[in-house]
Each structure stands twice: as structure tokens, then as C-alpha cells.
Write a structure and sequence with these properties.
The structure is a homodimer of 387-residue chains. The first copy, chain A, is of the alpha/beta class and 387 residues long. Helices cover 37% and strands 19% of the residues of chain A. In chain A, strands 3-2-4-7-1-8-12-11-9-10 form a 10-stranded mixed β-sheet, with helices on both faces. Chain A has a two-stranded antiparallel ribbon with strand order 5-6. In chain A, helix 4 crosses helix 14 and helix 7 crosses helix 11. The longest helix of chain A has 17 residues. At the A-B interface, helix 2, helix 3, strand 3, helix 4 and helix 5 of A face helix 2, helix 3, strand 3, helix 4 and helix 5 of B.
Chain lengths: 387, 387
């Protein structure tokens, strides 16, 4: 297996993109990534495109082929990867495997979702397809409901408070204010989050990531060839993915996501690091409780300790471990298929020292954590600037 | 790169499966494949699941995770692969890469589609997502329309007749009669096809593959370990995929599918064979014209010559080159995400000598050909019984 590096990254503005359809979003991010990699399109050998529910959102399947068309890349294989909200992370992992194994040299991994062309109710139903349709959605439970149950249990077992949940949103919005690609540029207070409308008790509107449009792309190459394209290649130290049951009811625990613990353990082993070595992490905060669980499942905090730590500012921008510097799903937005790839883009910018106002000084090792559904899929990647 | 073998295959009955949902179909095919491979589920390392439009057909995304749940395979990575009607073929290719590269030893490749829970009109719209939604479907053209244009042009340039088209359906239904898994067990005559209702001139109802439910699965292993599980491993000699533009209007030609020519050329080179060496082929006959074009694009016949050859019976069951012995998409049914995997299952049965009434004696080298959309994606695999 060869070492793999990210040699180019691109991102569209996230948000309610009434000006753009799925094609324009893909072109915005994809062409930026190709330009960033100083690469001509005829060097690209394959496209892995992550999208969750383009069929429900826009009637469009065969999305990787469309992505490839938009970037002018004909005749090369393109595949769409779908794993609910972990579609982008899973696409990145398959792209990594393709390059690492030597099957391909240069591949593009893209992620995209155009979610605002349907009503909020239609979007919620489409997103429900990330769980078990028959056993969960048909019984009346939506995704806020699934995560609310996890939050309730976490509060019951560990004394996690609604204020701790709210502090995740406050931190991530503060980071998003410094990110021009973010959907929201508005600081929040704990009081504002606490007073926002209840969606599914204890989760309020401002505990939930938004409905978003957006796209992201990265270009991968074998590390030994990376400097031909780019002076600051970012090496992928580890790529791992694990699963738990799709149905929440069948899990061993509601207070954590076992797929994340398993994927993280494998990733740390592959990267030969411990959680203490990570200086920046983009974690999957689809709901505020999800970030608290992620911090525990990834081994950054003991079970039940992350909520208070986040409220105490231990993971704020510029800390020893800065979490969701992009603004996370909550502040930057969550176009579901794009999210896993966007996380990699943010880590690359941080490790290159190109994150502008939100640059974490001395960022050395980065981690991304992308969850599908209520935790049936979890994908973890670890990155470091190549020596 | 290691040699890869298929060590187990499974198939559900194809058809209007009112008795079964997507989960039951996946279990039917998946458990049969595991049993056929004499393998215990804890040896499986990853699942690649092909599905085209489960979101539109049933509101269910995250399908590979569901597949994995149904087979009792927790904690291992699962990804859904979507490439329209080539989802199954693309999933097989990624499974092949995973094993060939040494990343994984044993993987399951599944394909499934449950299409009959929506109206025919909803299904046609969902399938339209295989093309360019904005430039094709929104303008009023459905998939029969796209293939009808190809048929018209093929007739104009090469003198292909409606009777030649009809003879594809007649041949494939004759094969399906001998396949207990097939959707249709009814012989057709050319007259019956010719008299069936026009769907999109010159294509009539009986020129079109049906709306189907079904699932298929194969188990892959490194060839060197294959005999541990199975006495008759089938070696994958080649796996290749190519693309053309998603939009029919932008193609170089309407009388063939360039993605198929490119994928086939690469596959023959990898397998070190010529088209003459192939004794059985499962080709993508979503419409009768598609089989005629496939026979030409795959190099079995010169351009414009396949229609007459098929009508003359040159590719009937038991010929030197027997095509669509399963009944093809037309006779066996076309649950879109399952089709590419089902083609591999049929070839494995033929090469093992287990195809029962439809066994082709001396079947030596098999080929499968799976197309996405109107030809934006084409996937070709070549197989041989391991020595």
C-alpha cells in the first residue's frame, strides 16, 4: 500500500444557494480543487462522488457521471457512493483505497447535496431514509427524534445539561463567523439556543444543523508524486470505516456511537498516534449531542466528560484541540453528501496554514469524523502535513 | 494485484414480489450466496451494495448498511454504490478492486431494487434520474424515448428492422422460460412483439425490459484462498468501467455506446482474450436495441451486422456464443441495482455447469456487460473457471 496525499481542495459556499443547482455547485468546488492541485483534467483517472439523496431532493441519480461531465472528465470511471450523511467520508475512503492500492494514481473525490429545492417536510422525510424506513421513520420518528433519545439518555446517565448541548452550537457558530464558506455568520449565546423552539425535546432548533446546499472536492495522489503538483501535500495517515446496526433500537448503547469507537481505534492504530496527538478535528455535529458523543467516542474525553469540557471552552478555536474550526455541520452547514469531503478540505487548509482568521497556530495532526444516519456508519480519517 | 475469484452466488426470484420488501429480497440472495460459498458471516470484511433509486422507490437510503444488517454483518464497512442501472456492475468492480489490491480478503457484492411499490409513472420518472434530469427528463423524454432515438438512427444507418429488434425479445424470453428465477415464463413470437403497444416508436412494450423486484449477491475472495471455500471458483479475468457523456445529445454517435467499446477494449486486454474467445455473455438488453448495439460495441459483430445475426439465431442458447442465457433484462427482469450482479451469478452458474436446462455445454469464458443510463456508464467483466 502506498502513502496517499491530498494535493488539491475546493469548496462551494454553503447555504441556501438559490442561485445554483447541483451542477453549478459541483463545478464550483470541483474546478477549484483541480486548480488548487495545478492539475489538468486529463490526468484524473477516476471520480468518487458522495451524495445521499439526490433522487429525493432533485430526481437525479447517476450523480458521479454528472459530476464528471461538469468537470469535463469523460471516459474515466465515476461512481456515486452513498452512506447517508457519511457519503462524503465513504467516498474519500474509497478514493484513498484506489490510490493506496496502486489501481489509480490521481482521483477526485467529490461530495454534493442540493437540499433546498424541496420543502422542509420533504427534506426531513428524505433524511429519514438514513435510518430504517420501516422500523423508524414509518413509526413516526425523524432524525431529531433519534438524536433526542440519545441526548436524553446521555443526560440521564452522565448529568449532561441542555446548556452543555447549547455550548456546542455557540462554539461552532463562533468559528463559522470566521469562515466565508459557512452558511451562518451569526454569533449565538447559550440563552438564544436555550430559548429557540423545541424540535424534539431536549433538542431545540439551534441544536440542529440546517438544511443546506453545497459541494466539496479533494484531489488525491500518491505521496511520492504529490510535490509535482503542490508544495504542501497533506498526507492521509489513516482511513477507516465501521458500522453498527442501522436501527437505534438494536444498539448496545444509546449514549455513544460504537461505529465511531471502532473506526477511531483502527484509525489511531494505522496512524500510529493517540487521541492526544490530534490538534484539530472536524467532527460530525449534526445535532449538538452528536459532537459531545463524538468527543467521547473518539477518545478525546472520558465518557460523560465532554459536555462540560466543551462548555468550559476546552475545544474552542486556538485550544490545544480545536474542534470544528470550519463551524462544523451546525455553523458551516450540512449539505449531507458534501459534509465528509468538506471536513477534509477544512483540515487541509488548517494543516497548510491557509485557514485565515480561524487558523490554529501549530496545527499538526488533523482528524475528520463523518457519521451516517444515527450511527450505522462512521468514517474516520487522520491527516498530517507531509514532511 | 492479486487474482480474484467468485466463491459463492445467490439470487432471489425476480418479478413482482408482492410478498417481499427490500430486506427480504436482500436476505434471500445474500444468505444463499454465503451458503453457496460455505462461509461464515464473521469472515466477511466489507459489503459493496448496488442500488439505483431506493430513495425514490421506497424512501430508503443507506442501503448497504441495511443489507449488512439483514445478513447479520455488523461492524464491517458497507457502502452503497450507485451508477443508475450499472450500480450492480460498478459495485462488483469496486469489490474486485478491494480484494485484488489486498485491502480486503472476503467481500460481498450485493445488488437490489424493489421497484413495484410505486406506480408505473413514478417508476418511469425515478428511472429518468439515470439521465440528465434538467436537459432530458424535464424536456419530456423518458428512457424508452432515449433508446428509441438510438434505434431509429441504427435503423436509418444500417437497415436494422423492427423484426430484428423483436427477435432479441423472442430469444431472451425463450431462455427465461428455462430459468426458475426469471420474471417471465412465456415464449414470445416476433408477431406478438410487433403487435404489442408502441411505447416510443419504434420500441413496443415487448421491446422493453420490465419493472422488477429482485436481488443478487456474490462473494469474492483471493483466488489463492478460493478453494478453501469452493471446489469450482470462478476467476475474474478482467474488470473495467468507462464513461461517456450523461446527455445523449452530446455523444459522438447514437448508434453505439462508446463507453462500452472503451470498457470492452480494456477488458479484453486485461483478460488477454479476443471477443472470439467468449462463449457466454450476459449483455444489457434494457431495450431490444440495446442488445443489438451491445453485440457490436463488444466486438462480437461488425457495426450494423448484429440485428440480422440475432434474428438468424446465431446467439441463441447453445450457440458458439450464447447471449443472455438467463433471459437477460428483458426475460429475467430488471431490478435495476441487482442486474449487474445477477449477470455475474448467471455466468458463474454457466461456467460451473450448474445452469440446468439452459446449460451451455463447454462454456469456457463468460462476459458480463452492464450499462448505466443511456450509456454514460458501462461496466464489463470477464470470467473463467479457475484451472
Amino acid at each position: 500500500m502506498r502513502d496517499v496525499a491530498i494535493i488539491g481542495v475546493g469548496l462551494s459556499k454553503f447555504g441556501e444557494r438559490w442561485d445554483s443547482g447541483i451542477k453549478e455547485l459541483m463545478a464550483e468546488a470541483g474546478l477549484m480543487a483541480l486548480e488548487d492541485a495545478n492539475i489538468s483534467s486529463n490526468e484524473i483517472e477516476m471520480i468518487f462522488g458522495g451524495t445521499m439523496a439526490s433522487g429525493r431532493f432533485m430526481g437525479q441519480e447517476h450523480v458521479a457521471a454528472l459530476m464528471s461531465d461538469q468537470l469535463g472528465l469523460n471516459n474515466i470511471p465515476a461512481v456515486r457512493i452513498e452512506n447517508a450523511c457519511a457519503s462524503g467520508g465513504s467516498a474519500l475512503r474509497l478514493g484513498y483505497i484506489a490510490v493506496s492500492s496502486g489501481i489509480h494514481d490521481i482521483v477526485v473525490v467529490g461530495g454534493v447535496e442540493k437540499m433546498t429545492d424541496v420543502t422542509a417536510s420533504e427534506a426531513t422525510t428524505a433524511l429519514g431514509g438514513a435510518g430504517d424506513q420501516e422500523w423508524e421513520l414509518f413509526q413516526g420518528i425523524t432524525f431529531p427524534g433519534l438524536y433526542a433519545m440519545m441526548a436524553k439518555r446521555h443526560m440521564y446517565e452522565y448529568g449532561t445539561t441542555e446548556e452543555m448541548l447549547a455550548s456546542v452550537a455557540v462554539k461552532n457558530h463562533a468559528n463559522a463567523v470566521k469562515n466565508k464558506y459557512a452558511q451562518f455568520h451569526k454569533n449565538l449565546t447559550i440563552e438564544e439556543v436555550m430559548k429557540s423552539k423545541v424540535v424534539s425535546d431536549p433538542l431545540k432548533l439551534l441544536d440542529c444543523s440546517p438544511i443546506s446546499d453545497g459541494a466539496a472536492a479533494v484531489v488525491l495522489a500518491p505521496l511520492e508524486r504529490a510535490r509535482k503538483y503542490n508544495d504542501t501535500p497533506i498526507k492521509i495517515l489513516a482511513s477507516s470505516q465501521a458500522r453498527d446496526t442501522l436501527r437505534l433500537a438494536e444498539r448496545d448503547t444509546l449514549t455513544g456511537i460504537k461505529a465511531t469507537s471502532i473506526a477511531a481505534e483502527k484509525a489511531y492504530r494505522q496512524a500510529k498516534i493517540t487521541p492526544k496527538d490530534v490538534s484539530i478535528a472536524e467532527v460530525h455535529d449534526c445535532f449538538t449531542i452528536a459532537e459531545i458523543m463524538a468527543m467521547e467516542d473518539l477518545g478525546f474525553y472520558k465518557k460523560g466528560k465532554a459536555g462540560k469540557a466543551i462548555m468550559d471552552g476546552e475545544t474552542a478555536l486556538g485550544s490545544k484541540l480545536s474542534v470544528n474550526t470550519s463551524g462544523g455541520l451546525k455553523g458551516c452547514g450540512h449539505p449531507v453528501g458534501a459534509t465528509g469531503v468538506k471536513q477534509a478540505v477544512e483540515v487541509v487548509w488548517q494543516l497548510r496554514g491557509e485557514a485565515g482568521d480561524r487558523q490554529v497556530n501549530g496545527a499538526n495532526i488533523g482528524l475528520t469524523h463523518n457519521v451516517g444516519g444515527s450511527g450505522a456508519t462512521s468514517v474516520v480519517h487522520v491527516y498530517k502535513r507531509a514532511d
